[in-house]
Amino acid sequence: MKTTPLHQAHLALGARMVPFAGYEMPLQYSSITAEHLAVRQGVGLFDVSHMGEFWIRGPGALDFLQFATLNDVARLRVGRAQYSMLPNAQGGVVDDIYLYRTGEQEYLMVVNAANIEKDWNHLQALARGFEVALEDASHFFALLAVQGPKAVEVLQGLTDADLASPKKNDTFMAKLAGKWVRLARTGYTGEDGYEVFVAPDEVQAVWEALLAGGAVPCGLGARDTLRLEAGFPLYGHELTDTTNPLCTPFGWVVKAQKDFYGKKALLNPVCEQRLVGLRVEGGIPREGFRVFSGDEEVGRFTSGTHSPLLKQGIGMAYVQADRAQVGTALEVEVRGRRLAARVVELPFVKR
Length: 351
Hints:
Layout: H1 7-12, E1 16-20, E2 23-28, H2 32-41, E3 44-47, E4 52-57, H3 61-68, E5 80-87, E6 93-103, E7 106-111, H4 116-126, E8 133-136, E9 142-147, H5 151-156, E10 171-176, E11 179-184, E12 193-198, H6 203-212, E13 216-218, H7 220-229, H8 263-266, E14 273-280, E15 290-293, E16 296-307, E17 312-320, E18 329-334, E19 337-344
Parallel strand pairs: 3-13
Antiparallel strand pairs: 1-2, 3-9, 4-7, 4-8, 5-6, 6-7, 9-12, 10-11, 11-12, 14-17, 14-19, 15-16, 15-18, 16-17, 18-19
């Protein structure tokens, strides 16, 4: 089992550790609800150093990334980032990613921890014929996420850089707690905040400075409930090798005007099922729970949880396309009981 550079720090804080994507990671330090609300109301601090990072460099970097990803990379100026996906040849998704343009011919791609090897092999194969150099830099970065309405305030106390002016998806280098870091106004909680790319041997100092500044340590449990409230997908659940993003609320990522890998297979799908958000009365849905319309099973949950903010069960599910309209009344089977559920607009919680 791999560990992040902050492993001992998590143990010292009494974190409950669990296996995740080949890493031993903190699930929670206090309670998932308390950590969740710390991010919604104040500032939370996550160790996400298990994520993978690839450098893509060279005169052909833009052309390669336009072909390898679904979003429009040509729109990225230096110092800007975008959410995107890697399509496969079958109309599905290899992974969902974040892409940062760090130089004229240089990009940094952040990928899901469980998919590092898969993504690397996929991109290496696609790169043949492009004037581009790929580097797996996963071991050269630790990564922190500082998220919440007070994130900027806490970070600002540790740097001379102006953190209020940058917009969402801006990225730049700065000194934080005396260490050079890459800051990005990105995150996966639905809150404002920054992600901090830092050298593994310097992350401890930055982590401790952020905790001293008032950030609350948060684990994977709160990360999952937060991303669900925000209506964000998790690879392996909402997105897989066989799910077409155009049958989900995340189809906006697909820029059909450009050429990309697997384009013919991905465009114009017949969506027999669509991914929807569901609010559930009187219980908590979980992955795999069955969705019914009358006596007919019409879908299954891909993720579910109790929303600390809405104080009810929420989740995402693939349901038959004719049952996917917002407002549709359905039922979910929870521990042998049928509970009322309703299709709602994502996100569940708007910030």
